[in-house]
């Protein structure tokens, strides 16, 4: 009889441990961190199609986004996009002759290397969806690094912060490219 009771207790202990593990995994994934797979070429050369990254869901609960952060946001109910923050609330954003301007001042984009030959069609924020003069409060203006092949704020308009899932900088797959991608990289 004693051995059966010990076995039953052992199974209950295992069941409790598994339930706690699943509960913690659910909490971590729902509120703290989650994986995302890059889908498409819109963030080349920084991120490649099928790169796998971790989203930090809590970073913007304690701080505001910074220019050049890479963020994940809900583009629709079915699809999340990953793009780079370019414009912050209250800023006027434009690209003229392939140069980014924030409040009419040229801004260097340090993640574009000399070898990178990216091209951005000219635009002014006022010409884009919504016709905003500046990025509205509670929003960010995002662009893909591969500007010639990216659905971003030029099409979607400024992104409300309540649609931003979080910040991402840790690439964990493929193994040969594991790294932490800095905002200015």
From TrEMBL:
Parts of the chain that traverse the membrane: 12-38
Keyword Metal-binding part of the UniProt annotation: no
GO molecular function, one term: signal peptidase activity
Membrane topology, as annotated: Single-pass type II membrane protein
EC number(s) per entry: 3.4.21.89
Reaction(s) the record says it catalyses: Cleavage of hydrophobic, N-terminal signal or leader sequences from secreted and periplasmic proteins
Family the UniProt entry places it in: Belongs to the peptidase S26 family.
Protein name listed in UniProt: Signal peptidase I
Native source species: Oceanobacillus kapialis
């Amino acid at each position: 009889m004693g051995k059966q009771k010990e076995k039953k207790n052992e199974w209950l202990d295992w069941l409790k441990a598994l339930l706690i593990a699943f509960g913690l995994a659910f909490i971590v994934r729902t509120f703290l961190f989650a994986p995302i797979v890059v889908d498409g070429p819109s963030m080349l050369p920084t991120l490649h199609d099928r790169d796998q990254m971790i989203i930090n869901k809590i970073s913007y609960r304690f701080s505001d986004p910074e220019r050049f952060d890479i963020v994940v946001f809900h583009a629709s109910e079915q699809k999340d996009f990953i793009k780079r923050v370019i414009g912050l609330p209250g800023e006027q954003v434009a690209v003229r002759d392939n140069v980014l301007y924030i409040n009419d001042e040229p801004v260097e984009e340090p993640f574009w290397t000399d070898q990178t030959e990216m091209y951005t069609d000219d635009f002014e924020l006022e010409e884009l969806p919504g016709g905003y003069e500046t990025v509205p409060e509670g929003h960010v203006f995002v662009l893909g690094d591969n500007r010639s092949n990216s659905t971003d704020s030029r099409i979607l308009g400024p992104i409300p912060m309540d649609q931003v899932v979080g910040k991402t900088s840790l690439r964990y797959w493929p193994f040969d490219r594991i790294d932490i991608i800095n905002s200015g990289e």
